Amino acid sequence: MADDVDVEASGLLDGLEGDARAERAELIPWLLERGVSIEQIRASSSPMLLASRRVIGDDGVYVSAREAAEKYDVDLELFERIQRAMGLPRIEDPDAAVLLRADAEAAKFTRDFLAAGISADELVQITRLLGDGVARAAEAMRYAALAAVIRPAATEVEIAQASEKLVSELAPMLGPLIQDVLLLQLRHAIETQAVTATERAEGQHLPGAREVTIAFADLVGFTKLGEALPPEDLERLAQRLADMTREVAVAPVRFIKTIGDEVMLVSPEPVPLLEAVLRLVDATDDDGDFPRLRVGLATGMAVSREGDWFGSSVNLAARVTGAARPGSVLVAESARDAIGDDERFAWSFAGARHLKGFKADVKLFRARRAEPAEE
């Protein structure tokens, strides 16, 4: 096919001059030999990556949402909800061929999950959460892949060849990697997701509220840092906090989410959570380049929905965190009572505080590691 195309007359080099024109003229025949169409090249803002996109499903074939839904006997409205949950834009015309054939395969998975007993609303929630997480992972992979293939003085065709080779090697690993990570998370979630006797007796379809201990940890002075540091440095700080939190979040402790400069953890058992946040504070204190951390804990009833937790105990933990001093772990009375007299911890009473959103004053306690007993 490449021999049949007059690259100079195709218009694909319009606006390019010098080396840029010569490199594009070399790239186009190479792409055509791999089945990339002239239309795809013309429409692409980065033709260098078209070959690697082809490896992961961009064959240039488009179908309509109605075609995909009818092919797998899925309700069209539900299929469009699933598409939006995955991060694709709203489809204005369901009969327009605007979906890549690979993207339309989501209709098959929608059918299969519904057949397994997952409700439509639950499937949309699951898809939205997966889409959010995988989108961040895809962005990190994109950055890593480009960093691996782009080198000084590389021509367009050299970058295209290197990216195609890299993606061809990585693509077969992605499915098993995502599956392994998801199954690992499911194993730990099921292990720590207790279902009470009341819930079993009532036959509730979803587990309801249960007693858990909630912790928030945030970086002290993050707002002021934002006035002195560029956004990318702030992002790296927040990411380091998230990475350090994942390191200490060993089951039954669960890392839930990051909220800007703050992280959230939950555990059905309060003692492991207190141990985890004390390790986290120690780790940040030992790093001279890292801002100090403050942590708040509370225990109470909360309910899990869409991977997040809700309830007054969650709000209380957030308020307690705001009252904590830099480098300290502040514990609400509810969590202090739940932890009990564990000899690994030492306590000091921090007073009773009026916290926003709570009518009664809340008794607070500072937690630290107990000093080793002298011989």
From TrEMBL:
EC number: 4.6.1.1
Example GO biological process: cAMP biosynthetic process
Matches recorded under Pfam families: Ad_Cy_reg (PF16701), Guanylate_cyc (PF00211)
InterPro entries according to UniProt: A/G_cyclase (IPR001054), Ad_Cy_reg (IPR032026), Adenylyl/Guanylyl_Cyclase_3/4 (IPR050697), Nucleotide_cyclase (IPR029787)
Gene3D superfamilies linked to this entry: Nucleotide cyclase
An example molecular function term from Gene Ontology annotations: adenylate cyclase activity
Protein name, entry field: Cyclase
Originating organism: Mycolicibacterium obuense
